[in-house]
Specification:
20% strand, 8-stranded mixed β-sheet, 7 helices, Spore Coat Polysaccharide Biosynthesis Protein SpsA, Chain A, globular, GTP:adenosylcobinamide-phosphate guanylyltransferase, nucleotidyltransferase activity, two-stranded antiparallel sheet, alpha/beta
Length: 252
Amino acid sequence: MDALVMCGGRGTRLDDGEKPLAPVAGRSMVDRALDALAASRVETAYAAVSPHTPRTRERIVDRRDGTGGGGTAAAESLGLVVVDTPGEGYVADLQAALAEGPEPPTLTVAVDLPLLDGAAVDAVLDARAAAGTDSLSVRVPVARKRELGASADAATRYGDGAADASAADDDSAADRVPAGVNVVGALDGAGNEAVRATRDARLAVNVNRPGDRRLAERILAGDRDASALPSGGVDWLDAGDAGTGSPGGGPS
């Protein structure tokens, strides 16, 4: 399966220039995302950029052409394609990139998951295969993000979108947010979709604000006061639900 990495967001909440180039523990988030895909079963990564991220586009082209350095040995086996999108928001850019990029089904990855690794990516692919559905939506309990100290926007919650994310006290299905990693079966939303939820930190820490970056760096450094970084497969909370597939939303 091919992957689509969303690299076109403005990153205004992080306030550190182009979001994909923001460093986490000395390595840009876009390089970390591509490293994770290179270490997985993904064959080709399509990087969706926008007019908001011209330097990110240059970085990806350099990495693709082997002229910018900073890649990994595993990255040499990963095909890399740049897809230009209009920069009109996550969902609009996702749809534009899917229309011009990989053939479905496609793994979609938000660039702001610096803890993601190849094993977690493969676990998502395996979960979709086990579900036997066209699409897969990965979600994280708001309570888990709060436990970790990561931000969770109420606007991206399932259930009552007007609720305050800080009010969530459990792992119930209504109190879960998108992880930023999904499998999209069809651009028009046709087909069925499975839902899987996890407390895994690799899928729970989206760097949207400075505090999220500090949290990710503490976890990567093995800070004894931070959550341990998981390895290997992903533990899913339940069998999930099935419904109508859709490209879905994600962080910006």
